[in-house]
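Anyone? Bumping this.
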Amino acid sequence: EAQVTQNPRYLITVTGKKLTVTCSQNMNHEYMSWYRQDPGLGLRQIYYSMNVEVTDKGDVPEGYKVSRKEKRNFPLILESPSPNQTSLYFCASSSSLGESSYEQYFGPGTRLTVT
Amino acid sequence: GQQVMQIPQYQHVQEGEDFTTYCNSSTTLSNIQWYKQRPGGHPVFLIQLVKSGEVKKQKRLTFQFGEAKKNSSLHITATQTTDVGTYFCAPMKTSYDKVIFGPGTSLSVIP
């Protein structure tokens, strides 16, 4: 079954404690992306990756890191989480975006709370 | 930068009434995608529009891309409770790697 998986689904942590949210897709997609969703603000892109070893900032990259060492995995790293990073996070993948776009497949989401 | 507006922000309708949400971009687009997110769920792709003036239908849903390729609309005929959720547009530009979603329209259907 074609899918995007994220782990963990729920996480409560404390300020400053490094954490990683994993994302994996089994569709051989080149494009992967992380979004955060906050009430009233919709979906905002954090980072995206056009292919292995190629990553770039989205609209709200501050406080986040990503890596794309393998095509299927795109982990999101919070080196020193702060309460303003409490949010619902989605990973997504697609064959391509831009002029020749294909649909994005979203993971189930990770609800993060930073106290 | 690119500005994307969606109106209305919220819409409450009686079951059986029609519903329309509009997506407006400040710049000309190469294509536009629409997604639906059910409460507690993740966004799910509905459709992509590419051509100027394009109209596509999916059962009770009708999607339209403006002639100038700067706006789009989603119309639902005779809403049902299964239509509840937030509808997002995602405009795409040529060689534009970032993705900016519209703020979404939240639809509630009163049975």
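Late reply, but here is one note on the structure posted above: The longest strand of chain A covers residues 42-51.
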